[in-house]
Amino acid sequence: MSATGATSEDRYTVISADCHAGADLLDYRPYLEKRYHDEFDAWAAAYVNPYEDLVADTADKNWNSERRIAELEQDGIVAEVVFPNTIPPFFPSGSLMAPAPTAAEFQRRWAGLRAHNRWLADFCGAAPGRRAGVFQILLNDVQEAVQEIRRAVEAGLKGGLLLPGTPPGSGLPELYSSTYDPIWAVCAELGVPVNHHAGSASPPLGDEPAARAVYMVETTWFSHRALWHLIFGGAFRRNPELKLVLTEQGSGWIPGVLDMLDYYHGRLVASAAKASRAATAESKFGAGLATSMGKGPSEVWRDNCFVGASFMRPHEVPLRDRIGIEKIMWGSDYPHDEGTYPYTREGLRFAYARVPRDEVAAMVGGNAARVYGFDLDALDPIAAKIGPLVSEIAEPLAEPPADATSPVFARGASVRVW
Predict the structure, then answer these.
(1) How far apart are CA 107 and CA 49, in angstroms?
(2) How many CA atoms lie within 13 A of 39 on its CB side?
(3) φ, ψ at 161 (rounded to 5°)
(4) Which H or E run includes 307?
């Protein structure tokens, strides 16, 4: 077996760095503290789920462990990083999409997320070594967040922390604030990846017809902001072991954004040097910031950051060297309609045909194993039976499946920039 994740049987060991799961609404009740049971019963009785996929016949993909394993294996996937999907207790919508709670909502929302984290620990325990659960916190109470991080790690959740967004209007300090230093510190101490998933950082846009289209255009940008907030805020200088994973936000944007961030970092460094000779406007603006940031943005990316490149698109693949092959973790986004199931093999062919085997192995499994602590020696025997053949993925896909719904197969996705 290669240390990157290719088995001796000429099959890839595929780990999805982006899947989603959660309990059915009423099944969260046993995981809530008893003092919330009456409130939960009343809330659940009145709650109307706004998501069609969570009330459809296929909704049990989120919590039916046996079905999930069977479908992922059918797709050639041996292990998964599990982000949330269903509605936690006392939330108006999925936690990735819900706005930050008001002061009145805070305690019940916290209770709901703790219930999800407890459920997730059991769900991951049902498939030992094959699920890395991503646990949830709120940012309103930093000390409580730190305690929950420690509890979740002790419960065996290996997927790390799901970092909420701080969109404009949330009332929360921005992510660059030193307010959150205890969170970064405990994550660095425990080796906990900090995951920031698309969808959690966008401000409310209202109900106008254009709002949904504007959301589609802007949501990934709002999620990208976590990268420069933590860099400019000095989180990585103070916590050199901190790991940040940006998931389901695309990957083609990364080289250009790093160039931009390096430019501004360079101007701050230059202005700091000038400050000793002349009090220019630029030197006043950037005084002390370059020092507090530490390394430049590209160095931080190299040393501390990763991308959960869900169903990586063909036009992004030629940028892999600039992104860093060792930084890219492919994801299927199961069980979402935009995910690659049941056409993961075709999606991998569409993106990675003719890419060197060792590079594919790293991106589809080896990197995720390293970041999230999966044991490749334990997963390889499964992959040797169900993993995609190396020869299969090397063959270009002539036509996407007619009924595929993943954007990886979208018109224009096959354009390559070599």
Answers:
(1) 22
(2) 14
(3) -90, 140
(4) strand 305-310
Query: Phi, psi (5° rounding) for residue 77?
Result: -105, 130
How is residue 393 annotated by DSSP?
Answer: H
Per-residue pLDDT of the chain (418 residues; tens, 9 = 90+): 455 565 556 999 999 999 999 999 999 999 999 999 999 999 999 999 989 999 999 999 999 999 999 999 999 999 999 999 999 999 999 999 898 899 999 999 999 999 999 999 999 999 999 999 999 999 999 999 999 999 999 999 999 999 999 999 999 999 999 999 999 999 999 999 999 999 989 998 888 999 999 999 999 999 999 999 999 999 999 999 999 999 999 999 999 999 999 998 888 877 656 655 554 455 566 667 778 888 999 999 999 999 999 989 999 999 999 999 999 999 999 999 999 999 999 999 999 999 999 999 999 999 999 999 999 999 999 999 999 999 999 999 999 999 999 999 986 544 333 2
The dihedrals phi and psi of 311, each to the nearest 5 degrees, come to: 30, 65
Annotate 199-212 with b (16+ C-beta within 10 A) or e (fewer). bbbbeeeeeeeeee
Asked if 14 and 76 touch (Cβ cutoff 8 Å), the reply is yes
Contact call for residues 364 and 80 (beta carbons, < 8 A): no
Q: Is 188 within 8 Å of 240 (Cβ atoms)?
A: yes
DSSP per residue, 68-132: HHHHHHHTTEEEEEEEE-S--TT-SS-TTTSPPPPTTTHHHHHHHHHHHHHHHHHHHHTSTTTEE
First to last CA, the chain: 30
The strand pairing partners of 196, in sequence order, are 246
Q: Under 8 Å CB-to-CB from 173, ≥6 apart: which residues? A: 139, 166, 179, 180
Pairing, β 305-310 against β 160-162: unpaired
Query: Rounded to an integer, what distance in angstroms lies between the CA atom of residue 163 and that of residue 200?
Result: 8
Closest CA to 21 of 62, 76, 71: 62
pTM of the model: 0.94
Q: Which two tokens stand for residue 42?
A: 């009343």
Q: What are phi and psi of 46, to 5 degrees?
A: -100, -10
Residues 141/105, Cβ–Cβ less than 8 Å: no
| Residue 222 · residue 280 · CB < 8 Å | no
Element holding 302 (H helix, E strand): helix 297-304
- Report residue 3: phi and psi, to 5°: -65, -15
